[in-house]
Amino acid sequence: MQRPRFLPDNFTLALLAVVGLASLWPLQGAAAHAFDVLTTAAIALLFFMHGAKLSRANVVAGLSHWRLHLLVLAFTFGLFPVLGLLLKPVFTWSLSPELAVGMLFLCTLPATVQSAIAFTAMARGNVAAAVCSASASSLIGVFITPLVVSWLVVPGGVSGGGALDAVIHIMEQLLLPFAAGQLLQPWVGGFVQRHASTLKMVDQSSILLVVYTAFSAAVVEGLWSKVPAPMLLALMVACCVLLAIVLFITTWGSRKLGFSKEDEITIVFCGSKKSMASGVPMAKVLFAAPAVGMMILPLMIFHQIQLMVCAVIAQRYGQRAD
């Protein structure tokens, strides 16, 4: 039986189911603590597998495109925060204070890895450069995101002793497992490549676990009483506007700077996307537990919108004549 075209993908459905589950049966007490430990372990395993999957050959092949990587990093950690700063009055006016902060947090995050590479491949872009650029963005974000959050989001908004402590915590949870995976890549890389579906399952399962625990804490604090339907619609519009601006600038900028069509595709998909796999665990470290659910709601919505929009763009790129 053919899947109805209007039906979202399985991960989106699972995400909606987890949000519904957290709304009806939020975790509390000992159960919340147990799930928190479980999600930390799942995220560490996820980043270990990412490190083991990334081959040295891809890194070397991608590093030669330094102009492309600098432009992608400028869009990810420069353009997005500047747009967040410019749109901050609009976010503050149209959204609740927590969601407005969540939109600013979204602007500080690194790019996605899997989906950026997948869309680049679908659009017949420079895949080797996409692998290197997206991976570099994810690693650099460990250091840059907490610093930009402390500047852009809210003074004193980083919990647990400031941006430096946040960097250390994020390095412990994300960078160390990734580095361990890279060190063991010659021995375990082939196994991870052969079981790519397992990596995807760990990726999605860890995100679902964190979303469940974060939304549980937020529901206990009265999340849905703070987000009425009109505000949810305003949040969706804000995400669409932000993505449209970035897609236009990344496309226009790459053409103005004389990049090839293949490199333009890589710049568009690596420079316009924000990572849920990195953003959700970072939010856990950077913000107080009851606030995390509100902080990641803009990221969840932006993530789904970028997947749907970029899928259409990738198909159009892929249909171009050689």
Can you walk me through this structure?
This protein has a domain at 65-162 and 207-318: Na+/H+ antiporter like fold (Up-down Bundle). It is globular, with a radius of gyration of 19 Å. The protein is 82% helix and 0% strand. By secondary structure, it is mostly helical. Helix 3 (56-63) crosses helix 7 (127-153). This is Bile acid:sodium symporter. One of its GO terms (cellular component) is plasma membrane. Pfam families: SBF_like (PF13593). Keywords: Membrane, Transmembrane, Transmembrane helix.
Short description:
The protein has 322 residues and is mainly α.
Task: Record keyword descriptors for this entry.
322 residues; Na+/H+ antiporter like fold; 82% helix; 0% strand; mainly alpha
